[in-house]
Specification:
Number of strands: 0
Oligomer: single chain
Number of domains: 1
Length: 76
């Protein structure tokens, strides 16, 4: 396992330490989790592009009433 040195403001480090204590974990574990979650996030531009493709693809699909769909499914 590699060790790294990072710089954080005193205020941010206090928040990290407080959260690590609250979760009964180490500072390193909390920061590793935060970084892993950030890296799993999708690129906002890619998400926006995918949404736009969906809007174009289903733009003329029309609307529907979700309650009606649920009732029809329930009654089947």
């Amino acid at each position: 396992m590699a060790k790294v040195m990072i710089s954080l403001s005193d205020e941010l480090l206090e928040q990290v330490d407080a959260e690590a204590r609250r979760r009964s974990t180490s500072r390193s574990a909390l920061l590793a989790l935060a970084v892993a979650r950030e890296l799993e996030r999708r690129d906002p531009a890619a998400v926006a592009a995918a949404l736009e493709r969906s809007r174009k693809r289903f733009g003329d699909a029309g609307g529907f009433e979700s309650a009606e769909l649920v009732r029809a499914d329930r009654d089947r």
